[in-house]
C-alpha cells in the first residue's frame, strides 16, 4: 500500500489556494523548481496528472478530487499537531489595503490565510492609499499595502513591492469622442492614480474634466460600466467586464505605479508575520487574469 507524504499534499493544496507555483514556493520557503518536483513526485505516486498544462493553472478531474480530499487530510493532521503539541498561532492582525484590492486580491489571500491560521483574527480597512499611509504613521495598522509612485532608487526587499503598468479603463462599448474633453472618473484628491493622470493630461495639453468622484471602488466601477467616462487602474486590478488600453490617439501612455508593503518588522507579532508571508505571496501572484464584480 502506498502512502502519500503530507508535505506533498500541502504543497499541492497551497499551489491551488494561491493560484500559482511561484507564490506557493514563496509561502513554503521553496524554489519554484523544488515545488514543480514535488508536484511531479505526487503525480508519479498517484499515476495521474493533477494540473492541466496551459496558459492558466487548472486542475484535472483527479486534481479536483485530490484537492478536496487533501484539504480534509491536512486539517486532521494540523488538528492532531495542535491538540497534542499545543502548536498554533493566534492573535489579531490589523491591515490597511487600497480600495483596488478590495474585490480581487484581498478575498483570495484572506481565504487562504484563515484556512491555515483559523485562530488569527484579521481586521481590514480599505481606503485610498494616502489615508492608509496617514493611519499607518499613527500605528493604526500592523501591515499596509499602498499604491505609490515608482521610486527609481528602490532598496526594499524585492518581496515588498511590485511595479505595475497603469492603463486606461472604460466600458467595452465606450467610444471617446475626439472633440470632447476626456471625462474622468476618479477617487478623491490624494489618490496617486488621480495625481498621475492629471499631471500627464496637463503635460500633453489634453482637455479633461471630472465627471464622477467616489471613495468607493464599486462606485467607480459602476460609473465606468455605465459609460460615464474613463478611469485609470493598475493592470492586475482591472475587472473582466471592462476593457483597458495602454494608450490611444487621445489617451497618452500612463507609465507605472508601485504596489508597496509597509510594516515595522520589530513590532510584528507572530500572527502578523504569518499574514505578511501570505500578502507577499499574493503580490507575487498578481496576474493579468480578470475578476468578476457587480
Given helix and strand content, the structural type is alpha/beta
Nearest-integer average pLDDT: 87
Summarize the amount of helix as a percent range: 40-55%
CATH topology of the largest domain: D-Maltodextrin-Binding Protein, domain 2
Q: How many discrete structural domains?
A: 3
Notes on the protein architecture:
This protein folds into three domains: 6-85, Winged helix-like DNA-binding domain superfamily/Winged helix DNA-binding domain (Arc Repressor Mutant, subunit A); 91-158 and 261-284, D-Maltodextrin-Binding Protein, domain 2 (3-Layer(aba) Sandwich), CATH 3.40.190.10; 164-257, Periplasmic binding protein-like II (D-Maltodextrin-Binding Protein, domain 2). The longest helix has 25 residues, at 61-85. By secondary structure, it is an alpha/beta fold. The protein has helices at residues 6-18, 21-28, 32-46, 61-85, 105-116, 129-137, 192-203, 217-225, 270-284, and strands at 51-52, 58-59, 91-98, 120-127, 143-148, 161-171, 182-186, 208-213, 231-234, 242-245, 256-263. The strands form three sheets. Strands 3, 4, 5, 6, 9, 10 and 11 form a seven-stranded mixed sheet that branches. Strands 1-2 form a two-stranded antiparallel sheet. Strands 7-8 form a two-stranded parallel sheet. The model is unreliable at 288-294 (pLDDT under 50). A hairpin with a 5-residue loop joins strand 1 (51-52) and strand 2 (58-59). Helix 2 (21-28) packs antiparallel against helix 9 (270-284). It has nine helices and eleven strands.
